[in-house]
Amino acid sequence: MRHELNLWVAGGDLRQAELAQLLAADGHTVHTWALEGHGSLTGVHMEEDTAGAELADCVILPLPSEEEGGLLHAPLSHRPRQLAELLAPLRPGQLVCAGMAGPVLTALAAERGLVLQDYFAREELAVANAVPTAEGAIQIALEELPITLHGARVLVIGFGRIGKALARRLAGLGARVSVAARKWSDLAWAESCGYCGEQTDHLAGWLCGYDLVVNTVPAPVLGLTELSDLKPGCLVIDLASKPGGAGVAKVRAVFPAAPVPSLPDWGRS
Q: Per the domain annotation, does 102 fall within a domain?
């Protein structure tokens, strides 16, 4: 039985670099592409082009896998990388694993007869990913807020995987947590957990008392009207996938000097 695999790890951030090293440590032959900005990786072949990718047992793309314009998500690359450049040498039937596969990647894979698996569609991974995302948001809040989270009034917009993980941890730190959701069922669950409930579609006029607002909804839920309700010094953290729920430009229009931290490269749910 064959155990050693030929794997290509393409694009991504430090998570992809760590994955490449872990796979190499397990005895696999690992090639990386569009990760040259990380520097050297132990036991890994760092490739300058895609020659040889057609021999891969699996090509592993990052989370998220693509950016606008058909680009591979590759923040550690020295130049923009087109998805088509990576997929061009692959043969029909080759396995490509990607996180949050977008329309360009999906179309290119179908055109070339590739087997595309979106690993972020696995519920167990999405749930596990919510934990570090929630912890990262709390770290930002602790660094940016001039007050303690204990006793702070916090609004979490959205009660999906990340919203649930975040609200629970904030409440555990003593924050007074409210949850905004669109579905009545989500509001019922939030209130059953001891959180106050707000309707996402009716936030205008109800935001002036919050010290921290964290959005997890990938839709424009915080417009200029809603942002104008926030008191000076309120911290806004947008965790949503593009286009996000607030947007730096809108926050800057209301509070020119306000910090708008986010976790732009993390997977969302």
A: yes
